[in-house]
Each structure stands twice: as C-alpha cells, then as structure tokens.
Amino acid sequence: MRPQRDDMGEHREAEAPFAMIDKLLAASVARRFYLENQSKVDIAKEFNISRFKVARLLDVAVAHDIVRIDITVPVEIDAPLSQALTERFGLRHGIVVNLARSQGGGVAPADTGQVSRWLGTAAARLISEIAEEGDVLGLDASCAVEALSEAVTRLRSCEVVQLTGVHGQDLANDAAVAAVRRTAAAGRGRAFPLYAPFILPNAPTASILRSQPAIAETLAQFGRVTKAVVGIGAWDASLSTVYDALTEQERETYRVFGACADVAGHVFDEDGQVIPAELNARMISMSAAQLRGVPELIGVSGGARSAEAVRAVLKSGLLTGVVTDATTARRLLWYDGPDNTPRAKDANMVESAT
C-alpha cells in the first residue's frame, strides 16, 4: 500500500476498508493500549506500523465492538431500603439511591436536576440488566429519562420508542428525541422518535398531527412496547411538565379533582385514579390504557414532594418497578397515606435499613 503524507509532512497509510484489516491485529493493539498502558509510539514500533495506523486500529476496535468502553457514575444503592420498598409494594424492581453518599457528597433537595441525573443513572443500570434481546423499550420525555440515555452504554439488541411529545420548540433537536436516539444506539436497534409537541392548543390540531406519517409510525409502536421508563411528576410548578404547560384555570380544574401526580401526561389523584380531562385529546402521548398494558413499567422520581406522587401512582397498579431516593423511600415505607398515618411494621423496616 502506497504511503501518503499528512499535513505535518509525515507518512501515513491510505485508508482501508474494515474487511481488509486484521481483526487480530486490532485486538492486539487495543490490548496493549487499553490494558497494558503502552504508548502509541511503542505499539507502532512493536508491530512495525505507523502510530497513525495504531490510532486507526484503536478506532476500529471500538467501532466494531472489539473494545467496549463503559463510562459509569458512582451511584450508591441502598440495598436494605430497595428490598423493603420492593416487598412493601409488591414490585419486581425497587432501586433506592442514597443521594447523601453518591459521588461523596449530598444533594440539596431543591437540586432537581442533580437528583434526576443520579436517578437516571440508576435507572440505566436497571434497564441494562433487565432488557432482553428483541425488547421494545419505551421512554418518555422526562429529565430522568434524558439522564438515563446519557448513562446507558450497552443494551441487548432492542428498539426504542418515544412515548410522549417534546416540550421545546425545536422538535428535531429536542432532548427527548436525542435521548431516544442515544438509547437506541446503545442497543443497536431502531429509534422511533416523536417529532411532535407534547400538548397542542386544541384537539383537532392534535388529531391532524397524529395522522402525519412519521408521527403515526411512532404511535403505531406503542402497542409493541415491552418495557418502559417514565418520570413521575408531583403536581406543582417545576415538578410536573403537565402542570407547567397548563393555564392557571386548567390547573385549578385538576386541583378540584385532587390532582397529585402525573405520568406521561396522565394526571392521577391520591387514590391512584386517572383524572379524565379534555387535555387528553390535546396530548401526543401513550394513553393510560396503553401504559397499563406495558409488561414492565418503571417509574422514576425523587426529591421534593415525590413521595406523595409516587405513592399515588403505586396505588394505580401501573408500575412494576420504582427508582427513587432514600428519603422518598423512607417516607413511602413509613406512612400509609397522605394523612401521614405511621405504619408500625414498615417503620421498623426503615429503622433497620438505616
């Protein structure tokens, strides 16, 4: 192969297709670089190749799964609280993150962004463990799911479907769309993004959008979803994307009906009942009935006022798993309901867990 010259005046080999590159050579170069900490110059001398080819072989090793790189964030899981939460509410999966010890320091209750990042990281670990070949994974547009997509590095082969419309104005570059694409890439599966606003001004506009080919294709995947991760919002400003998107009059209507939490745009009262409203016809979102039909539905929530919201959604029977923080988990275990009636049995569980 005739050498070429780069901008620095040094010789480099011409690019070759992967089929012509020795996989064993790529693996050997990668082992020396990543595991034995050899420099590219020393590797080049050993194999009698240029350091530029060493760099390309390292890129090839990553691109073709000869080398896999995982970036993990140190999140501490509270195992006793996780077990107590799982048993108390009959869940398949209960993950409790100790925010006070994760990454060596506490997280202020008001720092919802940081809370979402830690919970999303824990949710990424969970979904990486339970996702199976051929699963169809559903993701909503919550902050926790965005964090999940940034933390997950590898999934068994699966498709990923966006369950709710986007909250911003730039539909193509919204964080929710990016999260679906990132997660699908981790699972080497197809992404089904939802290029549509979450809430439309009126029902006719929403109906027209649902009929658009690209949007209709994604909506048609809802019935195929086998596992899903959704954020649980508390009914208050900045804690619920639905609350923030409504007028004050619309919020008051929900308050009259006892709004307590929302999941994928559907609002629940404290008893876990979905509050029917005109809003549903204006949303681009998986329906409450479709959510109930998902075999594995993981709810993620933590921080201020999350216990009341999580408790309400748990009562609905929708969830098979919960990812939350230790403070919220203790509140869920300690109290039976919003009136803060202590549960003696679970109080003992909390004491032993701490």
What would you note in describing this structure?
Strands 3, 4, 5, 6, 7, 8, 9, 10 and 11 form a 9-stranded mixed sheet that branches. A two-stranded antiparallel sheet has the order 1-2. The chain is built from 15 helices and 11 strands. It folds into 2 domains: 4-63, Arc Repressor Mutant, subunit A (Orthogonal Bundle); 79-353, 3-Layer(aba) Sandwich (Rossmann fold). It has 354 residues and is an alpha/beta fold. 42% of the residues lie in helices and 13% in strands. The chain is globular, with a radius of gyration of 24 Å.
Average pLDDT confidence is 84
Q: Please indicate the count of domains.
A: 2
Distance between the termini: 66 Å
CATH class descriptor name of the largest domain: Alpha Beta
The helical percent reads: 40-55%
Let me know the number of strands.
11
> Roughly what fraction of the amino acids lie in strands?
5-15%
Q: What is the 3D shape?
A: globular
Structural class: alpha/beta
As residue ranges, the low-confidence spans are 1-20, 103-110, 344-354
Integer-rounded radius of gyration: 24 Å
CATH topology of the largest domain: Rossmann fold
Number of helices: 15
Largest sheet: 9 strands, mixed
- In N-to-C order, the SSE pattern is EEHHHHEHEHEHEHHEHHEEHEHEHH
Architecture of the largest domain, according to CATH?
3-Layer(aba) Sandwich
